[in-house]
## 1
Amino acid sequence: MILRARGLRRYFGEFCALDGVSLEIREGEFVSVVGPNGAGKSTLINVLTGLLKPNAGRVFFKEREITGLGPVKLCRLGMARSFQLVHIFPELTVLEFLKVAVVSRLGRGGRLFSSLARDREVHGQALEVAELFGLAEKQTTPAKHLPQGDKKLLDVASAFALQPQIILLDEPTSGVSTREKHTIMDILVSASKRIGIKSIIQVEHDMDIVFGYSDRIIALHQGKLLAEGTPDAIKANEVVVNTVVGKKEWARRA
Amino acid sequence: MRRAGLALVVALILAMPFVAGDYYVTLMLPFFAYSVILLGLNLLFGYTGLLSFGHALFIGVGAYAAAFLTSKFGVMHLEAILLAAAGAAVLIAAPIGGLCVRYVKIYFAMLTLAFGMLFHSFLLKFYFVTGGDEGMRVLQPFLLGFDLSQIPKVRFLTRPFYYYSVVVLAVATFVMWRIVSSPFGLCLRAIRDNPDKAQSLGVSVKRYRWYAFVISAAYAAVGGALLGPTTGQVDPNLAYWTHSGNIVFMMLLGGFANFFGPLVGALVFIFLQDTVMSIVPYWRLVFGAILALIVIAAPGGLMGLLDRRAVSWGEKSRQGGAPP
């Protein structure tokens, strides 16, 4: 078991965004978290990755308790994430952006006087990730000048550059055209195999993407676990279909 | 092209004592001191994204370190004074920075301003220690172990002290260049652009901000210590908040996005202030107008304007047109 959570509860004032959610993620799994808006998907990712502390419940990463550990420590343990909205360093070039992740992973961020330009290891690894994500040709372009799809890809690529054991992606294809979504997902899957990422958890609204790429699906509703199972099992689950996809939409797809 | 320009500037600076009058050569001394200060301040603002309105505190620490060491403890070696000033600033900046970097934007600026005001009040009110509003004397220091007190003051300032300041600035510039070109410098720029993203990539945001704060404080103190010997006197105004405002102005004037921008800002500020003050008594009015103009018309400062022109020349020459 690579990641385990027990009874996660998180309040925002009176509102209970997560209400006793438990889950287990095994090595080698691609798990999608689905649910309507306000189901608690992003809160779950934020709690699992240490950005938010749970009011109750515990999180274990490879059987080590990580509840309340901040993102920096979790990063060092081998957990990475990307955000729902595009998070970039606008003034950094594509290669510099990826170098931040590589420098952080190699523990070289505290080096005050060594030359970054002469560090071949950092340069090589950053370039390798840029090539994996098809961004090598734009390596000298400032991130702010990239098209929206490339910004999203760069944001996700930087999390991959950390070479984590598990990666949590909050809507990795949001804000991207339907045509580009499958391209991005194919890149993510092949990059994760190449880098050696053991498990992926993604929050996703697009059910084509969810059913097409997931080994297992976790459905949330009003902060609670609604169901979990294989894509086929979820497709056959009327409650999930009604709550997450909607009857009309499901009929249209069929 | 850039290296040739830099070499020309260095050559001009080195030749200045032989080609310019003593008055203008002594005007260069605060330029060297402020340049060191601004290198540090720009690490904090231009590279890390934290605007300090209390950096005069550390200038005061450096200046008063020079005053105490020369006039109270008989430590006359400037090398020792500069090291002691940097050390004192690090000791003071460590706890202050630890608190301030927990906040950002206006809260960080206001906190640094508050600590600056506290220190200013200390210098003003603890008369028996600091001399109050009269300040303290800074005796002429030894340079590289040489006691040059037999040389007339102006001659001392325009030759040995001038070149000593040039070397201090050169070393400070080289060290800062290494810092901003290092993996640490890259992490600072990442923090400036997006601290949440930097944190999600494992960059310890608060710790690196703290490092930047402490380094910038050490630079301010070294610059502060260099200011003392020129006037032979330090007073609490060095630590007053308007002084913090002046160095922020210099940084904006030159352009914080460029490594050398703040240095250009310091040079223009000092010479412009001197010129305007000799013409009209209302120099602050003129400077206020200039600051407003910069913020509105050239937010990248003077170096930003130059960069823009360079880009436009480049584009025109690529299109076959001759540069203007």
## 2
Amino acid sequence: MSKCYQDEYEAGYTPRLVMEEASRCLLCLDAPCSSSCPAGTDPAKFIRSVRFKNFKGAAETVRINNVLGAICARVCPTERYCQQGCSRSGIDKPIDIGRIQRYITDFEEATKMDILEVEKPNGKKVAVIGSGPAGLTSAAYLAQKGYAVTIYEKDAKAGGYLRNGIPEYRLPNAVVDKEINRIVKLGVDINLNTRVGEDVKLADLKKENDAVIVAIGASKGKSFEMFEHNRKVKIAVDFLKQVKARKGNVKLPKNVLVIGGGDVAMDVVTTLKLLGVENVSDVVYEEFKEFRASKKELQSAQEQGVSIIDGYAPVSCRGGTVKFKHRVIPADLKIKADLIILAIGQVTDPAGIDLEFERGEVKSKSYRVGESNVFYAGDIAHGEKTVVYAVRTGKEAAISVDKYLGGK
Amino acid sequence: MVRKDLSITFMGVKFPNPFCLSSSPVGNCYDMCAKAYESGWGGVVFKTIGPKHYLIDEVSPRFDALTKEAEPFVGFKNMEQIAEHSLEENLADLRRLKKNYPSQVLIASIMGSNEEDWEVLAKLVTEAGADMIELNFSCPQMTSHAMGSDVGSNPELCRKYCAAVRRSTKLPFMAKMTPNITDMCDPAIASLEGGADGISAINTIKSIINVDLDKKVGLPIIDGKSAISGYSGKAVKPVALRFIQQMRNHPKLKDAEISGIGGIETWEDAAEFILLGCKNLQVTTGIMQYGYRIVEDMKRGLEHYMDEQGVDCLEDLVGLANKNLIPAEELNRDYIVYPEIDTNKCIGCGRCVISCYDGAHQAMEWNKETRRPNCNHDKCVGCLLCGLVCPVGAIKPGERVLKANRKPRNLAKLVLQDSIEKL
């Protein structure tokens, strides 16, 4: 069946299928899935609830533990986290936890459940900079605790990389909108088109609020010098943002070369294929055995017929022609393309935010910057750069803020 | 977030929720019952305590499971008898449980072999602090015919032993019925007449669930032999519900307080027992397979069900389904419901055609080209077997048509069964 960019790549479960999958779960004693979810979503508990027909209870477990449950269900590289230690692997293969979670959150949405509750206002104010997964999570957590939370977002719409970076076929913007609506319903204010450093000053936010959480992410794509000032070169994150904003209505050439082998690269190559680009070549620095992309994303790229060439590093670029050398064996590669897309990583763009960074992460051991009332979360915090990790650091930073402000 | 109070009063005792361990291996000692309370069970029926002179000597192994296709535990066979700990140990456990868990309900299950036994045991467990008592008239695997299900199928013995217990305790008590009988109403009525405050049903069903084909012995095999013993689990739920309905339908039992037992695993099972008139619920097999933790989803699911039903008090749901179960001869036989096939959902497996031909009325026709079924109304009797076998839920009750020469009643008011829409 041919797939298209605007439709979810993977179909959701029917009630019968979710029950079949939940019945595969061994309901094992120590539930490695629950102990390895960075966000603490507790799959063992929600799968058991599905197994025992308590769908609403399952939705409560997901939502209370993970305010971005519907998003994580779709984008989480579960094979690296909850599914990695699954006891069922001793028989055949792990439980498809992400898909069960998706069923549950779809059920929650379809039955209009209203799960999260807000404690009475405690009179304290917190500003959150950035509305990506970390910012949204910390805002939601603090709003539930009774804080008056305001998010400052530089873009015209909230969601950060969820909205701009993850392609529609993996994470529809409709889902992002619904998750954000739930958080807005908790009383969180979102100031759009507001860049901290230009439109408001961090120093003022620090003064006007009891605490500030910086969750600005790593939204700027990296480049190499050989690709600078080349009109045929595009940066992956900019490309993905444009495609998603235009709902896939972009004009693309016949031959596209992508450089990079992470999840962003996989998103780019699959997007290109789903938009009808005939030849998509992906050259990757890592060899297959050290691939960073999640299996699911690699699999969809391969299903779509992307040529993936591993182990080559770019050495020069002239116009649309890029030369590569293999990292180990003596081998050269030359590819000529109409468009070159670089998916070689992202960095933080801390313009206007006066924090000390080291390799993209804030130089600090806790979630608090020194003795100030500034905290941070997400990609600029220590740890993995995934959505589920952003949920984790968002939650933990919020807990730190709550403790700092005298919460119980 | 939805929150509902699951507390309910049964035989004059308020339970924090209706879910209890039933008298069985799952409530065999202090630690087990304590863990069950900690897991959120509203009450515990401590494993049946017998008279001092009756010594328990168990077989090994003692369980077996009935499977079906990939389902590992359709039904369960149990050969274990009553508590094997000494009377003193059991009474000490009861005392400790009541002391440490005063707000949860402690039910002592007892079983004697004569009136004196029953009197003594009732007195002892009353002194030990039990909130109520259950008389086990129904264990089908006792090695004594003076005890167990042979008693429960004899109304006069039930009456006599209930009277004996009534003489020696003021606590409320219920009589646990055996399903190994044609009519449960007789022993139930006799028990109430003897002084019981309520009925619990059902105990396990006498069974042989598997036979080893090479060794030619039933399972489990004990030194080359096996024996008939109690069957439980999901498979017995329909039998339990039937007995409970029959009791609730009997003029002398219609207001009886009933504790429902038999295959309860989910909140849906629990709700069914409540709708058929139970104020209390007991579980064993589900726990043996999955652990005490299953109570979490039963409780939460039941709260959501109460919310959906718009009730704040669990008691308001008790017995709501009794009136909708009527004698077969009183059912409306005037109309046919034809199946409606959702061709978008149909995947063309043809299972409905097979079942209709071989098990019904050869009405489901098959288009070989399109690989899709079509119902011929001239032959269809509206049994809806097709809907039950459809793997994707594509067949639902559709058009309702009066049979020839029947007077139209108000068809719009007819309520259709929707069990086939469940999954």
## 3
Amino acid sequence: MLSSILTGIGEATQLSALVANLVGVIVGITFGSMPGLTFSTGLILLLPVTFAFDPVTGISLLVGVFIGGMTGGSVSAILLGIPGTPSAAATVIDGYPLKQKGMAGKALGMAVIASIFAGLVSLLLLILVAPLIAKVALQFGSVEIFALVLFGLSTIISVSSGSVIKGLIAGIIGLMAMEIGLDPVMGVHRFTLGYEPLQAGIDLLAAMIGLFAIPQIIKDLPRSQGETGIKIEEKGITNQLPSWQEIKSCFGIMVRGALMGTGIGSIPGTGGPIAAFLSYETNKRMSKHPEKWGTGILEGVAAPEAANNGVTGGALIPMLTLGIPGDPGTAILLGALLIHGLQPGPLLFQNNADVVYGIFAALFIANILTLIVQWFGIRLFVKILQVPKTILLPAIMVLTIVGSFAVRNNLFDVYVMAVFGVIGYFLERYDFPTTPVILAIVLGPTLETEMRRAIIAEGTYTAFFTHPISAVFIFLTLVMLFGPTVKDKIAARRAA
Amino acid sequence: MVKTAPLLKVIVVCFTSRGEKMSRGREDRQVAFCFLLLAAIWGYLTLQIPPTSIPGTPGPRFFPWLLVTGLVILSLVMLVGSLRQPADEKQVDADAKKDIDWIGLGTLAMFFVYVWMVDLIGLRWGTLVMMPFFLFVSFRLRNIMEIALITLVLAFGVDFVFRVLLKMALPMGSIF
């Protein structure tokens, strides 16, 4: 145990891992701060680069993007009044009025302090809680794993903001894609149409790159000639720490935000936006002067920023211990672990404890680096925000080809990426969410394999309802599926 | 025997009344038909999979059939939901018919040509050939110097960073 911890920390503090983490943080803040570009796209584009490194260095790079991206969303939220990420939407409420009052530097300072404080609190909770959950999850058999993955897939409901039906259809499309290739139990060909390259199945990364990056590029294409980058009045934007008194007055808010973020983040399918708005509302209600919230106060920046960064540690709890990603960011991190030959879940803690502790150490370093980079680089990020997308988007286009080719050095994967780009484009065009496709692609193979293994082992289809843990997860899945509808119906009936 | 029509009605009411706006009735109907067609094709392909060799256990066809069934039910729910749309919304719908996204579709088509070029002549030369078209048509750049500079930086910069610095393999082209 101790040797695993030391090995993990040693690997995460190697020069290559530190540099990778730093690069990740810079890319994360850049992608997070640019409205329209999500840090998930940054994660996807950097994923192939990790092939050149050992797992901990590679994961350090991605963890850097994850933490930097979550924090970077506040830059454009405060400076432009446009959230760089959905998680930073609540930061706009007080952050932008602060900028208009000429206190942009102070708002950015409070945002980064609250973010890093919460990031570290959630990391501490992750370190304490994750091994305990992993120990329990080790007792799971195929029946329980199937039910758990099914529950993980039910988070499609909460990530399908527009229409549940469309979200479920998108999930089925992802599951269909993952059926192509050899059957995982019997080894027979399925949906390969006699075409040899399809026997190896659809590559996870190629599909994710296509689904994320291509629709993003097309969505951001300039629709009129002469569209330029964003212009920001740079005067008065400097790094400025809030005073000790101001930090002290926000301390309780930061603690509450961090705990709420970690708790909400650990529930698959919730994520940063929910945590940030909930923290904002709760802290506003608990405030002695709620009427000032929304007019530009530092508390209104600290509350959502603490919560959305608290989510980072929380979201990794189900991802690392159970192999259940709750949002696109953790789904991509899960994919990265799989690509590096690591199977997230309880066995990861048993078989690759050094990697787990390496990830914990990388998360700590990423938080510290984010503080330093965002603090000293604020002027640079203001400049980056003004770079026209006509330069960034073509670069992303070339990177999609590099990334999808790098997985297996196979051009077939590049074509697969392009096809998934078309699928992603049409899904977005007709208001189908793409996140369910990603969740299904990541969880689909486990779902099918464990379901069939369980039925073969138990000899009955009813095993999923007779095993207590499985029954609980199936019940929770049904609650996820029908709960919001039933709640709405009851509320409507009461109102009538 | 389960009566499917009332069951379908329950599902439709359940999922389409959650404040969802089926405001694009016509589009939704077309999409639902496309998914029904996909389900039919997937069902046909599922029939081509050899059946299981272990009796009484789910074989390789089991999961695909589940998905086909799910897709058919959800598509029907979507279809019925779009038909249940109030008449006034349908009118709004017809008025707000979307324009064809020529730039988006054109960019997608060019992207396939780009991938094919990369397959043929490699990433560096493929980027050199195709990027000016993207920059001119999709990104609406008109400054020749800007187009040339971005193309050169991307073609050689990406090659240098990934192939030379990171020692990663890049597509070299099948004709070379």
## 4
Amino acid sequence: MSGNRAVIALLDRAQADNESGQREAAGASLERALRIEPRNPWLWLELAQVRLAQGQYAQAITLARKSNSFAGRQHRVQAENWQVIGQARVAQGDSAGAGQAFKLSAELAQQAKAKGYHDSGFNFQ
Amino acid sequence: MTLPSSPRKKFHFNFKLPGRAVRLVALLLLLGLSGYIYYLDVTIREAFEGRKFALPARVYGRALEVYPGLKLTREQFVEEFKSIGYHENPQPDEAATYKNTLNGIEFTTRDFVFGDGPQPLQHLRIEFADGKVSLLQVRGSKDVDLPLLRMEPPLIGGIYPGHNEDRELVRLSQVPKPLIDALIATEDRKFYSHWGIDPRGIARALYKTVTGQRIEGGSTLTQQLVKNFFLTSERTLSRKANEVLMALLLEMHYSKDEILETYLNEIFLGQDASRAIHGFGLASYFYFDRPLDRLEPQEIATLIGMVKGPTVYDPRKHPELALKRRDVVLQEMVSQNVITQAQFVAARQKPLGVVQRAPAGTSPYPAFLQFVHRQLERDYREEDLRSEGLRIFTTLDPFVQHQAEEALKSRLSAIEKARKFAANTLEGAVVVSSTQTGEIQAMVGGRDARYAGYNRALDTQRSIGSLVKPIVYLTALEDPQLYTLITPLDDNPLMWRQPGTTDWKPQNYDNQFHGQVQLRTALAHSYNVATARLGIELGVEHILDKLPLYGIERRPPPFASSLLGAFGLSPVEVAQLYQTFADGGFRTPLRAIRAIVTADGKLLQRYPLNVEPVAPPAPVYLLTAALQGVVREGTAQSMTNWLPVEMNVAGKTGTTDDLRDSWFAGYTGDRVAVVWVGRDDNKPSGLTGASGAMTVWGEMMKNIQHEPLEPAMPEDIEMVNVDPVSGLRYDERCKAGVLLPFIKGSAPAETSPCGASSADGQANDSAGAKAEAKPDAKPGGKQDSGKRNWFQRLFN
């Protein structure tokens, strides 16, 4: 996710908060992490997931797109982003759009698998 | 129905019976008096309850996040210490102390309650190497590495209640006993036994009034508190009577301790410009820069001495009087056994010891604070801001702010000197924000950054001139079938007629027309005529309709001249506009506040990051490439005097008619900054965007660590090697030509043999740009025909 231990520490905290339903606090920790690594796609993805859990679907989709804009050729994070977009679209009642997103997500996940270790997800900034 | 007549009679006043009349009058008087007392009672209780908790909102800057690898020098870190009130100490184990070591610093943080909970005091060690943090550890029997430390945020200002009263609330238990004892010894020895008034004092006051002398003295602490609630210089008998009654009423409702605690927090102890210093807690910081429990006896005596007359005995303004008064209080203290004889002797020999400069109470960053206040006013009632003791966590970065202030001040003075302008005729404003989070890191409202008056960053709307052009070009680039970075634009004379306005003949800054120029060149050199023609083709309304998308709510006049920026915006609005360009088409509303926490540490509100996609990423990517061209080879070329070329800065100069306004808006990899320079009277400043605002921008940014600008390339963008003159495609292996981004499918298909135009030395990009600037100068036959073909292809 990151080569920076400070960012990892904040991510851990955010994930713990998110799992215990403390979405606002999770968002705050992720924003702290983003101030350190503003172009790290994994952090934007995490924030998208938090917003999705909060029911902020439009915001979740935008953040996932933003994550994708920083993802370059990292298919794994792209696959996850399209998952978020798909789920948000389901919640918005856009089943066709959701289907497309899930399909794209599956393809990207396949490519990520094929590439294997090349796409370990590490992003050194 | 008839009423019996006899009872009715009883209601007739019978003035023949004087006893009854007297009794009635007495009853009425009593009723009136009790009504009046009831009124006083309500008034004083409201004042007491209200003031008891009237705490200003405290505004904090960003908390510095420190971690191994962070670009930070020891000097910068020590600056941070100063801004949060740390003191150097050979034993840095007390909160807020530090000690320099060979490779770094040992220090101890304070307890601090953040928006996400409390952070306890920590004993730490930091080391630096090569301009970076190389080590961060918790000191202990065994040192432990710490991945991340969040420092306490600097206090940058307050939002004060009512008449700009500021206070630092203290609980009675936090107040040192000698202070309380000294206060009672000096002001009201019978405080714990009286009912709120001192009959002898009142008798004396009455006597003096009757004999025509001044009304004075005789006030108990309770009376003084009442007086403080309704501060007025009026000294009348009726006011004194009210004071006495209210003091009695207060004592009926509240305990001595409650009254004393309120007194300690309420009493007026000085004035700092527009801010009133209330209570001993704040006065302790204001005069001695230390908390109350760390004051020495003579300092306590100085403060107690001020109770009698905060202006007369102001230790900064009247040190001799203050010293005399202090010694009187010390005398009282020793005679009442508050201090020992030895302490008395020692204390008397000490100087006043007042810190010369009061810690900034009214904010050192008035422009930013004003912005914070306006954001708060949307969500909170003014009275809550001023009384609930809210703690407001903001985004201000004191380091960036300092660079912005210094750059503006020094550059404006230098320009005035170099051009022999009268001193202090130029003004300016700066806004700096973080690209990806939209957080405002610095805001300067004028060259005197401490002046809390007219805020040019927020409140001045000046014509933005060419700063508007990116919107025109972005609108064009959103249609890749018609427009790419190398699409030729027509910069020949233009006359435009539009109902409702006079005929319009835009001119270029150099008063020349440049024939056919590539789109990126027209933007790099800010050609007005080519831009106007492009904008008219695209539709004036169509372009202006886009402004709200970028967060600009003001609607410019629907004339073609608006395409060249003949309408006013404030620097902060311009920053919002460029933020979207810098962030790949995502708009993030500029924010100054992160979170608001209540006085007792509960999170009240968070202002989360909000992102909205407003422009497709690919055209924005092209626009950024073109704006990088502005800096690399266009109107902002002289940026190299400040920032290295590798920074790849994107930006745009703005110059308005008769050189009234000088603008520069630009971005690096992580910051967007906007500078305006001009005169308040709107007279010509004699400056272009490049000779004025851009120099401030460069001066400011050169001292701040930046990420170079390398925008993420959208998937539908490809890099294509083209001949910069003909716009034909080169073979990928060809070393001549210039690599430019195109939206897939929009790059020229027709190829040119490698080296066709490199033969005459026009192969590299900047030379190419020069050739385009004078397109008539170089068109070789072959290129000409190639160009025409390509033209036809584009417009067919």
